[in-house]
């Protein structure tokens, strides 16, 4: 009786496994067979302690992590160097702009001084002419009135 029960359970397990592999393979029996063979070999490797997802994968993962860390460190160092270079370039441009501003201030001051001198000279000339014309007009009016020379 026990063997009959074991046969029924075993048969049901095989049937369920067959349906599972056929369903996961999309109904293609050759693909289902390959998946079954892969799963059986992977289970056997785990039982023998040859699990590829075990220590070897962990060691490979550590090596890859170290390489990735080194790559990240190099990238960060390169970015920092680029930032330092950009900072130097910005400071250089700021210094150049300050020098240009001082130069323009000096030129503006010179131009302002020259314009001020020209304006002062023009005002002096205007005063002289006004004084001269006033004197002429005054002598002309005085001569009309008989007070002149």
Main attributes of the structure:
mainly alpha; 3 helices
Overview of the molecule:
This protein has 3 helices and no strands. It is rod-shaped and about 165 Å long. The protein has helices at 2-24, 29-48, 55-145. The model has no long low-confidence stretch (mean pLDDT 82). It is an all-alpha fold. Helices cover 90% and strands 0% of the residues.
In short:
With 149 residues, this protein is mostly helical. Helices cover 90% and strands 0% of the residues.
Please give the radius of gyration in angstroms.
Answer: 52 Å
Distance between the termini: 165 Å
Can you count the beta strands?
Answer: 0
Structural class: mainly alpha
Mean pLDDT: 82
Low-confidence stretches: none
The total of helices stands at 3
Q: State which percent range the strand residues make up.
A: under 5%
| Order of secondary-structure elements | HHH
State the helical fraction.
over 70%
Shape: rod-shaped
Mind summarizing the main beta sheet?
none
